[in-house]
Amino acid sequence: xxxxxxxxxxxxxxxxxxxxxxxxxxxxxxxxxxxxxxxxxxxxxxxxxxxxxxxxxxxxxxxxxxxxxxxxxxxxxxxxxxxxxxxxxxxxxxxxxxxxxxxxxxxxxxxxxxxxxxxxxxxxxxxxxxxxxxxxxxxxxxxxxxxxxxxxxxxxx
Length: 157
What we know:
By secondary structure, the chain is α+β, with helices and mostly antiparallel strands. It is built from 3 helices and 8 strands.
């Protein structure tokens, strides 16, 4: 079974990214004005460092918006071999579901909002906003040993 990120999650993240992008652009403009008004070379240190950091954030935000759905992982569950395959940015990670350290369902108001999967290799995967989330939860509960599965309140991770 393959699970893809939902359009609702992509739209929500895109909105937050656009707000972040606007804040970074306004902050960059303020730092640029401060750099132009600088009288000494030592006054340029903070604006130039801030502009560099803001430029990195702007670039990352722009790439995230540009990638769209490709910026999110695709989860494939192989029930016969008890494996999860996570495909993200052309990297494929195989996780043996019988060997996971922990599987935590984080709830909020009685509904599962996210899934934390800790692999035996030390990798941690957070699965949020997938289509057919109920089917993903049910399948993971079936494939992972019961003693490794837990639930926690969303704010008490």
